[in-house]
Amino acid sequence: QKEVEQDPGPLSVPEGAIVSLNCTYSNSAFQYFMWYRQYSRKGPELLMYTYSSGNKEDGRFTAQVDKSSKYISLFIRDSQPSDSATYLCAMSPNTNAGKSTFGDGTTLTVKP
Amino acid sequence: KAGVTQTPRYLIKTRGQQVTLSCSPISGHRSVSWYQQTPGQGLQFLFEYFSETQRNKGNFPGRFSGRQFSNSRSEMNVSTLELGDSALYLCASSLRDIAGEQFFGPGTRLTVL
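^ Those are the sequences you sent over. The predicted structure of the assembly is below.
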């Protein structure tokens, strides 16, 4: 079993919908949690970076971490066609990038 | 500010050959990390260089190697290519090796026939 499991998708929603993307993990040492967006033929782009449990909001994006359940989520409000991409969760026991473990990604399509 | 650049963008090789991929980090960034991305294994860490020294290494065989030059540009080399090495190879740079501070390049798509 992988340390990080991500809802595989693909996910297709109409424009304006609220999107929920989720990952679960098994390593209780993970303290830092990240969400990346990856467009086709591009490298991943960091969206959200959170430490420990709680919520973090940035514009239309909200990241939630529930360490007791080993569960993290990314919510996208008022989704736009430009949000169509693959979303990767990643987590690490410390700030060292080399220790990060990534999920396999969820591909999201937002239809106009 | 220019982003991370990787060359070449696409590469086709045959089994047994070797390949060298290049990464130019964002100006001023001293940390360069390499990742392999495949549909089956996802994104996996290869190694990280800081000021020409390898500081971290992932769980890949010795066929995968890298180096960093004094101008922070980095290369990775894969020798004796196998079919399973077909992947997108991503380079990421940061001022320090901090997970939330990495900027990724567009990647090099390697196909091994």
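The two ends of chain B are 37 Å apart (CA to CA). Chain B has a mean pLDDT of 93.

Shout if you want it in another format.
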